[in-house]
Amino acid sequence: MKNITLLLAILILSSCSVRKNNDFDFEKIAKISDSIKIQNITIHNLFKSQILAHKNDEFDSTIIVKNVYLPHRKLWDSCYAQIFGDENATRFNNEQGMVKWNRTLFDKDKIDFIDKTKTITEINIDKLIKSNLEKFSRLVPYQPNAKISLLFTPISGIGFGGCDSQQFALELNNQSINISYTLQKGLPHELNHLVYEKFRNNDVDKNSALSQTIDEGFACYFTYIFFDKNITEYEAVENMSKQDWDWFIKNEKEIFKKTKSYFSDLSGNNPLLRNDRHKLFPEAPKTLNYWLGFRIVSKYVEKYGKNSWKDIYKLTAKEVLEKSDYEQYIDKL
Length: 333
Description:
Elements: H1 2-21, H2 26-30, E1 35-38, E2 41-44, H3 46-52, H4 61-69, H5 73-83, H6 85-92, H7 95-103, H8 110-123, H9 125-139, E3 146-151, E4 160-162, E5 168-171, H10 179-200, H11 209-226, H12 233-236, H13 242-250, H14 252-259, H15 275-278, H16 288-304, H17 317-324, H18 326-331
Parallel strand pairs: 2-3, 3-5
Antiparallel strand pairs: 1-2, 4-5
Helix pairs in contact: 3-4, 4-7, 5-6, 8-10, 9-10, 10-11, 11-16, 11-17, 16-17
């Protein structure tokens, strides 16, 4: 009889453990701030309410409207509705559509949503965001007026980006996103884009491949600076490995020589920006323009001093390249 009682107790505890491990930790999630604002940057934790709407047996549509749709309505109505076209627009640009897909959001791949949310709660996201935004405000010469939402979505495609500084999103369920790396290392990268955008828009060649290369490379370099160079250069550039970095260094001269002719291209569809499509360097382990931009910016700072990275905000992409003497460096390789 004692053995039977003990077996039943083990089974009950095991059953409870399984249920707990296969559901959201609503108590921890509820403690996360709805939003965090430092100066002109606001980060909305929309995913919090998307989860809490499912806390009770009956789905709470009011939370979705009040805490998910309305706080960043411009993102849903404008950015998502436009990106995914007329067929999907009604999912995002009205309350009814938002409630409908959020109701069934976790019906499929719920374990994946739970695992990613667990990653977020273990990071202590409130502390992380606050400290990052405070440090960012001390470092940069200009504070963007920006809204960024951390969210789940039924159709992923933005990743970490958006339509403008007021319509930015991090899709937590996007399969291409490494949640831990993006939250801990990716935020400074994206924030620097928002700062540089203000100055880059004054460049008549702002849509050139070179401009996009400097933009991405500068964001990577800023990440390196943001973490006081306590991360490696290759980690700052798309979180690549040492092996990836070594491949780029080995092929540095050839990369520059073969991509230089595309610097003025305005199409956005060229081997420098889309090596994945054009296969100019089929063996390249990561994105060419991120790495090349980082190298150009690095050479600029190497020439003008450790704080000279701040100059780049007010320089055109052509000026950064010319002043860096990167081409002269390449010619000597």
